[in-house]
TrEMBL record:
Known catalytic reactions: prephenate + S-adenosyl-L-methionine = carboxy-S-adenosyl-L-methionine + 3-phenylpyruvate + H2O
UniProt feature coiled coil, ranges: none
Residues at which S-adenosyl-L-methionine binds: 40, 65-67, 90-91, 118-119, 133, 200
Organism of this sequence: Methyloglobulus morosus KoM1
Pfam families linked to this entry: Methyltransf_25
Protein name: Carboxy-S-adenosyl-L-methionine synthase
Keywords on record: Methyltransferase, S-adenosyl-L-methionine, Transferase
Gene name in the database record: cmoA
GO molecular function terms attached to this record: carboxyl- or carbamoyltransferase activity; methyltransferase activity; S-adenosyl-L-methionine binding
Length: 243
């Protein structure tokens, strides 16, 4: 599967529709994510290393909101525990089809089950590692607590949740600074002011960020004994939550 350069918002749009992970986005997604999410490669690499550390024999490792499978493949390349299976789930049929195409011809060191489903509807069980890599921010806020509770209940003792999210700050000055720095990051990656503005409009009311405190409180309410940031680059962060 060949990735194209992201130019979806390069020309002025008379009407900007809500952002969706359709075929157009899928065709440019690898380029889009690299140029839009600071530290994305570092997070993906670390997900693989954390899976190597926490994957338990005879368990499942979940990549929920897998998109084209970057986190899934990072886990597959690192997991050494015997008889593990990775379950990768996404609610975009275009993403699922693209990921399945990518898997064709790749070595099958660990079984990978790619599913088209809403992550809120699937069964989560016997899990040693669960990854939500910039996924929860697209789940309606009113559903997030019950979903995280289901994640916690599906984890084995000593299991790990890796939760990556775009954050907002409770301090408006910090919020403005982090947003401005993210836009500068995107401009440094070649996006124009028009592209940044139009995509921001498309994501409004689709991607709903929360504060670190809100995430940590939700995780503790679900039962996690510890939830700490291990990585942050501007307003993009990743949290390790331990059962």
């Amino acid at each position: 599967m060949t990735s194209l350069k992201d130019s979806i918002y390069a020309d002025p749009l008379g009407e900007i529709n809500a952002f969706t992970f359709d075929e157009t986005v899928v065709s440019v997604f690898p380029d889009m994510i690299q140029r839009s999410v600071p530290g994305y490669n570092a997070i993906i690499t670390a997900i693989g290393l954390l899976a190597k550390r926490y994957a338990q024999p005879n368990s499942f490792c979940y990549d929920l909101g897998c998109s084209l499978g970057a986190a899934t493949l990072a886990m597959r390349d690192q997991i050494e525990a015997e008889n593990c299976r990775i379950i990768a789930v996404d609610n975009s049929q275009s993403m699922v089809s693209g990921f399945k195409d990518k898997l064709q011809g790749l070595p099958v060191s660990i079984p990978i089950d790619v599913q088209f489903a809403d992550i809120r509807d699937i069964s989560i069980e016997n899990a040693s590692v669960i990854v939500l890599n910039f996924t929860l921010q697209f789940v309606p806020i009113e559903d997030r607590q019950s979903f995280i509770r289901k994640v916690y209940q599906g984890l084995l003792p000593n299991g790990i949740l890796i939760l990556s999210e775009k954050l907002k700050s409770a301090d408006e000055r910090q919020n403005t600074l982090q947003t401005d720095m993210h836009h500068l990051f995107k401009k440094a990656k070649g996006y124009s002011d028009l592209e940044i503005s139009q995509k921001r409009t498309a994501l409004e009311n689709v991607l709903i960020p929360e504060t670190l405190n809100q995430h940590q409180q939700r995780l503790h309410n679900a039962g996690f004994s510890s939830a700490e940031i291990w990585f942050q680059y501007f307003n993009f962060a990743s949290i390790i939550a331990l059962k």
